[in-house]
Specification:
This protein is α+β, with helices and mostly antiparallel strands and 714 residues long. The chain is 58% helix and 14% strand. The protein has three domains: 329 residues, Kinesin (3-Layer(aba) Sandwich); 115 residues, no CATH class; 140 residues. The chain has 16 helices and 19 strands. Helix 2 crosses helix 4 and helix 13 runs antiparallel to helix 15.
Amino acid sequence: MADVPAECNIKVLCRFRPLNQSEILRGDQFLPKFQADDTVIGKSYIFDRVFPTNTTQEQVYNTCAKQIVKDVLCGYNGTIFAYGQTSSGKTHTMEGKLHDPHQMGIIPRIAEDIFNHIFAMDENLEFHIKVSYFEIYMDKIRDLLDVTKTNLSVHEDKNRVPYVKGCTERFVSSPDEVMDVIDEGKANRHVAVTNMNEHSSRSHSIFLINIKQEHVETEQKLCGKLYLVDLAGSEKVSKTGAAGAVLDEAKNINKSLSALGNVISALAEGTKSHVPYRDSKMTRILQDSLGGNCRTTMFICCSPSSYNDAETKSTLMFGQRAKTIRNTASINLELTAEQWKRKYEKEKEKNKTLKDTIQKLEAELNRWRNGEDVPETEQTTSDVVNRIEAVEERPVLDNDTSSIVVRISEEERQKYEEEIRKLYKHHLIKIRRDLSVSLLSTHMMIQLLASSRGDGDKVQAELGRLQVESDCAKAEVKEVLQALEELAINYDQKSQEVEEKGLQNQLLADQLSQKMASLMELEAELSRMQEVSGQQRKRIADVLNGLMRDLSEFSTIVGNGEIKLPVEISGAIEEEFTVARLYISKIKSEVKSMVKRCRQLENMQLECHRKMEETGRELSSLYYRFCYVHSPQSSAPSCCLCFNRGLSQSLSLQRITSNRLRSFLFLFFSTFYCRNHHILRNTVHLLFSCPEGCSSAGRVSPRPPSQAAGPPAG
């Protein structure tokens, strides 16, 4: 298969959607009129095809996209993209309803058509199909198949073809797998609600299908890429009512579409040496699709409403400019070793032919310059043209896909031969005229030499003097050059020193800025620590005042007088803690003694109670004995009853006294335990929350009240 690059224009198709419900309710007028399948009249706009409002999705696909699938499978690059204002039907044209056989758009139909063609092709062909799906949102490339990749970059391969680096590629083997990828990417795409479209695309989406095929027997490899682009619509904020984040999205959309318009204008004019592909990531990715190695089809989607007449005219003019752009499409063929060898032999033969032709032309030119007439039969014009034509008609494989091979027809060859003959005749006349002038000049020079021969000696002497002066001047120039070289070397050294000093100054400035930043951080930390220290000091003062207040109350209870409360905390925190510790120690010793005394009193009470019971029992027995021995029988019961009553009263009195004593002791120890527990808790909290500035000597080991004073007895 010969890789012969062919020029082709961008194919532009215009599609009008019907009036939508809001336009019908508003009473908008249906503006466009169609003269033929390729013309919109009023002001005539001619495109490759115009689709009226009643065109079905299948008709659109069969007309424009079906052929491009065959081209991609033959090794060409292809691009289909939709352009137009917002709510003009771009997404409906490219995607449609993905799983509806009648309403599905170009992308799902291409997914099915590719595999249908592959299944019908030669069995010796192996295919590898990869798909990628990404969007350009806020001028950042975002992978729709991996949402973690939010800012991909555009690079160039070895053939200087732009591609998105790091984009996810999925291998697919059936239309269902392709549809799964489309569904996954579509779910991650940015959309929003505006006044003109309930599902407005807020980004440019690009679905890339990369098809590589290899013939098993011949080892011939072909590669084709198909870009399916759904551009976001241009917006007028006054109509869409965009605000906030939607407004920022509209700004970026209009900016990227403006960059696309600049590229189209530059390519359409054909006079600008620079095409601003790098102004936008979208135009950078589509660089090959616009004026490069690609067969491109563009849909311009328009609204028929009179409400959008300005945007529709702008879209139609954009399509007319794009229609003038010429691409150079060639097959992406990977050569085998044998094909490279044949190509080398052909190039070698071509080089040899051109060298022979150049030698003959040089010989002929020398004959013309020497004043000889070269007969037409000896001229190499026709021979040169025939050889060039023979070389150019051979199918030469070239790696540079952007080169153009021109075929010369017989009529053009005759025209070129006639033109060359005219040029040779004109050149011959010019050479003869130049020879005549040269002969006249030579004759005049001979006369001048004859007249000036007598002055030859003087001229010779003058030449000798001038030679000496020239030698002196050369020596001076040499010295000056040496001095200049030394100055240049010194200048280079000084420049290098200046650069080194500049780098050192920059380094010192960076270090100074770092030190200043560290100093500011330390100052902020110091101020924070001072503030924390002040809060801690205030907190310590409050806790100490509370502790001293509790100690004062407890001292009042135990009868040691009041303790003077500190009004504010002073610098000598050690002394304050020492005083508090001394009071606590003193109160602890007093409490211990009181507890000890209380226990003694309890023991004495128990002993007295026991002795009293024993004495009562003895008295009772003695009394009974006495009554039976010394008293008459009649008075014994009454005496016994009186004695028992007296004894019962005495026991009741003892019990009341004992209960009162127990109540007093219980009340005393309950009050003491509560107050002592509160004091110890405050002391422990104060000592363990003390700043690092406090001495360890001022700390008291916390001990529960049960260990300090013992549990209340009884």
